[in-house]
Design brief:
Elements (H helix, E strand, L loop, with lengths): L2 H23 L2 H8 L1 E3 L8 H22 L7 H10 L4 H28 L8 H21 L6 H15 L5 H9 L6 H33 L9 H9 L17 E3 H26 L24 H8 L6 H14 L3 H4 L11 H25 L3
This protein binds protoporphyrin IX containing FE (HEM).
Protoporphyrin IX containing FE (HEM) binds next to helix 3, helix 5, helix 6 and helix 9.
Keywords: Electron transport, Heme, Iron, Membrane, Metal-binding, Respiratory chain, Transmembrane, Transmembrane helix, Transport
Organism: Candidatus Manganitrophus noduliformans
GO molecular function: electron transfer activity; metal ion binding; oxidoreductase activity
């Protein structure tokens, strides 16, 4: 058969396979998704959302593997973790991947939030994209918190006890929250099964639904990007004498766009590949199971929260004794305030320079959280 005839035959087979699927599942929706135009100038900044998604995917895959062996029972949980680490082929590696990826997830999600906040991407009509995003953030915190108990070692018992005690400081509902979550007055098997259920299916299910909604809204409104995507149109309007204050950037389409496929898919893949490599390297160089096959030296068992809770831990230190409820209520108000940001900062201006108050407050909040975490780190690690 001639080369051209062969190529034609292959093309024909591909086309009929495509048509077969198109008729049954409707491929046009995927094709439209791939062709969706995206703003071009700040493209690398727009990889942070998909980077978050990549890390969550690593969590789901490695978490499913851990579930094959983990036993959520007060008597066997710690043993099953040791079994995964010491006996199962590459168990130590996949467990370390799960933990390193969780650590990185908090960093990347924080960067993604910062980028969408500073660029004013949450403004009308994208308020609900932010609200859903903030709920995602709270769910991720919940997953991180509940996961800390599952190793069921001394540190896990300590985390459960401290968390339960902290909850009980809430006025009125505190004692109820504490016993509902702990499954009684003290940390026990019921605490473990509750945290396990929350960690492996309740919160991941909520997360899956929220991420689907988040992506749907991004698809619906198109990516806003940031003010740099609109500077030609802004300059043209200004040249015509339109005052800058009356230019509503969120109503415009970007000056320059490109389809999602192939350029952005390529960038997202590079970032995803970089993250998988980083998580993998960290897991090999600094595995979370340094005592494979041996008993850990007793001095090493120092109760400490995961670093992503250090800032809250340090914050509560400012409120000793009877003041704890105040510190706790302030933290809760902060978390409840997050989804409300688009309804508080409603002015259509998106440029970070032209809205200095939110930009400065937002940056200070980030710096404050980092400083609190560093202070807690210095205290906890005894530097
Ligand atoms: C699992 C966590 C998350 C995933 C997988 C995710 C995914 C994404 C993706 C893929 C995009 C489009 C690309 C980009 O702008 O980076 C995006 C945009 C956006 N995200 Fe997220 N996101 C998450 C968390 C959050 C959080 C915590 C917030 C804020 C509280 C948030 C608010 C937004 C907003 C407002 C946009 C629109 C940006 C624009 O139109 O320019 N997201 N997200």
């Amino acid at each position: 058969m001639e080369r051209s005839e062969e190529a034609g035959l292959r093309h024909g087979m591909r086309q009929s396979l495509r048509d077969w699927f198109d008729e049954r599942v409707g491929l046009d929706i995927f094709e439209r998704m791939l062709q969706k135009p995206l703003p071009k100038r700040g493209a690398w900044f727009y990889t942070l959302g998909s980077a978050t998604l990549s890390l969550i995917t690593i969590q789901f895959v490695t978490g499913a593997f851990l579930m094959f062996y983990y036993v959520p029972d007060g008597e066997y949980a710690e043993q099953s973790i040791r079994y995964i680490t010491e006996q199962v082929s590459y168990g130590w590696y996949l467990r370390s991947m799960h933990r390193w990826s969780a650590n990185l997830l908090f960093v990347v999600i924080g960067l993604h939030m910062f980028r969408v906040f500073v660029s004013g991407s949450f403004k009308r009509p994208r308020e609900m994209t932010w609200v859903i995003g903030a709920l995602i953030f709270l769910t991720v915190i919940g997953i991180g918190l509940t996961g800390g108990l599952l190793p069921w070692d001394d540190n896990a018992h300590w985390i459960g006890t401290v968390f339960g005690n902290t909850l009980s400081y809430f006025p009125l509902v505190g004692p109820f929250l504490r016993s509902a979550l702990l499954g009684g007055e003290h940390v026990g098997t019921l605490t473990l099964t509750r945290f396990y259920a929350l960690h492996v299916w309740v919160l991941p299910l909520v997360l899956g639904i929220l991420i689907t909604l988040h992506l749907y809204l991004i698809r619906k409104h198109g990516l806003f990007g940031s003010v740099i995507e609109y500077r030609d149109q802004i300059a043209a309007l200004k040249a015509k004498g339109v005052p800058r204050e009356s230019i509503i950037v969120t109503k415009m389409t970007p000056d320059e766009t490109e389809p999602f496929y192939p350029a952005q898919v390529f960038r997202d893949s590079i970032v995803a590949f970089g993250l998988i490599t980083a998580v993998s390297l960290f897991s090999i160089l600094f595995p979370f199971s340094p005592y494979r096959g041996e008993e850990p030296p007793p001095t090493e068992i120092i109760p400490r929260p995961e670093w992503f809770f250090w800032s809250v831990d340090e914050w509560l230190m400012f409120f000793p004794g009877r003041l704890i409820p105040i510190g706790l209520i302030l933290v809760t108000l902060f978390f409840l305030f997050l989804p409300l940001i688009p309804f508080v900062e409603r002015h259509p201006e998106v440029s970070p320079i032209r809205r200095p108050v939110p930009t400065i407050i937002g940056t200070w909040v980030y710096l404050f959280i980092i400083v609190l975490a560093l202070m807690a780190g210095a205290r906890i690690l005894n530097y």
